[in-house]
Amino acid sequence: MSLTTVHTVADLRAAVAKWRAEGLRVALVPTMGALHDGHISLTELARTHADRVIVSIFVNPTQFGPNEDFGAYPRTLPDDQKLLDAAGVELCFAPSVDEMYPDGFATKVTVDGGMTNVLCGAARPGHFDGVAQVVTKLLLQAMPDCAIFGQKDYQQLMVIHRFAADLNIPVDIIGAKIQREEDGLAMSSRNRYLTPEERAIAPTLNRVLADITTKAQGGADVGPLLAKGREEILNAGFDPIDYLEIRDGKTLELIGDKVSKPARIFVAARLGKARLIDNHAINPGIERT
Length: 289
Ligand code: PAF
Fold this sequence. Notes:
Pantoate--beta-alanine Ligase, Chain: A,domain 2, binds pantoate, Rossmann fold, 10 helices
C-alpha cells in the first residue's frame, strides 16, 4: 500500500474508520516533519504495535516562543512523503494551521506542577502548554490505539503520559529509544542548522552525558560532576547552557547528591543557531518510558 496524504481531520477520521471497520490496529507518530532516521525508527516501532501507521506532520505554532525558530523550522513535506512511503507508512496527516486552530479556537491544555516548570519548561515558557494542546488534539483526531514519541524529548514524553492519564485519553503512549548518529549525536531535525564546524563539535553533548552517567552510577558526587561537565560543554563552543541537571527519571525532581535510583541526566545548550537537547538514563531499570 503506498502512502496517502490527507490534510483535514474529516479525511483522517474517514481513513481510520475504514481501518477500524476491518478490525485493524492503528498507531500514530506525531512529528513536526523534516524527517530523519530517528523518525523512521519511530514508524518501525509503531509497526510492531499496529497494522496501520499514521505520521502527522505539523509545525505547531503554539509550542514556539516569540523569539524561537517557528518561522525557520524546516518544512520539507515532499521529501518527508518520500521517506514515509519508502518506510511503508500508510497515512500522512499534514493539516494546515487553520485546520488545527480555526477562527474562534480558545482551548488550552496545561499540565501544572514540577514537571513542566523545569528544564525546557523553564527555558521555554509556554512550550509544554503548546505541546499538550496539539498532542491532545492529534490523539482525539486520530483516536489511534497507540502513539509513539521519542525519548530525546524525554520531558515531553513524561508530560504526555501525565495529561493522557489525567484526561483519560484511551491511547497507549509509547516511548522510543534515542537514535544517534555514528559519532553519538542524537538525531534531530534541528541538526540541520549546524555548520560543518558546529556539527563536528555537537557530539560533545553525548560524550559528556555518557561520562557523567558512568561516574554517577559508580557513586560519584553529582555537584563536581556537573561542574566539570558544564566546563567541557562551554569549552567545546556551546553557549549558553540552558541546563545540565540530573533528575528523577519519573517525577523529574532534582537529584542533588548521589544518584541511588533510576534517574536521567538532561542537557540543553545552544550551538550557533541550534538549541540541542539530549539525555541519558542513569541506573535504568524501573523508569517509565
Ligand atoms: O516532538 C515533536 O516533534 C513535537 O513536539 C510534537 C510531539 C509532534 C508536537 O508538536
